[in-house]
């Protein structure tokens, strides 16, 4: 864990689930965590919890659908701590539905949050990391970025796009000593399934998650693994599922 202590890490979607678990685990390993999410009360409480335990955390209310707010999150981080070592583009939504139901607002939400926010995070962090000649960009995809199921076409499209963007980024940032990592979780117990707007689809997903989902710290351990490698080792992609999850 020597490569985590002292690092400054920005996490979007930090108010619950994967982001919250990762913030707690990284702070316990000595990282400074900067928490971004819309729910200011949640990230303020999390930052207070971490600081009261002797860690270092800062919270800044951030709507990841707004590029200017994501830039402010990163700019404020650098102003306060002097650098940004890692950004975890984690915020996401999963309102599954069959395409024939024409849930256009849900489609737009997934594209804005799952895809554009990754680009906004890259845009905010990359200039600083290029100047530092160091850094790591961790983008959250999904098992759905590797396979498509009925009802999940748009979600899978956004998560596949995250993988494509991340691979292009990996190749482009080699001159700047920047590492890139894609993490693709399977069923993990978070609030993600709460974003499903169709009652019948939501019921099926809830049943699936109740049967298979594993704790959010499973994701946090993957982040720790990727970050803790020596600087010359670039863990480009991690795909993981619950042991019991077949699909």
What does this protein look like?
The protein has 247 residues and is of the alpha/beta class. The protein contains 7 helices and 7 strands, in the order βαβαβαβαβαβααβ. It has helices spanning 17-28, 40-52, 67-81, 104-132, 153-172, 199-212, 217-227; strands spanning 8-12, 32-37, 56-61, 86-89, 135-140, 178-185, 237-240. The longest helix has 29 residues, at 104-132. It is globular and about 50 Å long. It starts with 7 loop residues before the first strand and ends in a 7-residue tail after the last strand. The mean pLDDT is 95.
Brief summary:
This protein is of the alpha/beta class. It has one domain (8-240): NAD(P)-binding Rossmann-like Domain (Rossmann fold, 3-Layer(aba) Sandwich).
CATH class: Alpha Beta
CATH fold-type name: Rossmann fold
| Percent helix range | 40-55%
Shape type: globular
Main beta-sheet strand count, sense and barrel state: 7 strands, parallel
Quaternary form: single chain
Strand arrangement in the largest pleated sheet? 3-2-1-4-5-6-7
Number of strands: 7
Task: List its traits.
alpha/beta, 247 residues, 7 helices, seven-stranded parallel beta sheet, 7 strands, Rossmann fold, 16% strand
Please outline the helices and strands:
Blueprint lengths: L7 E5 L4 H12 L3 E6 L2 H13 L3 E6 L5 H15 L4 E4 L14 H29 L2 E6 L12 H20 L5 E8 L13 H14 L4 H11 L9 E4 L7
Parallel strand pairs: 1-2, 1-4, 2-3, 4-5, 5-6, 6-7
Helix pairs in contact: 1-7, 3-4, 4-5
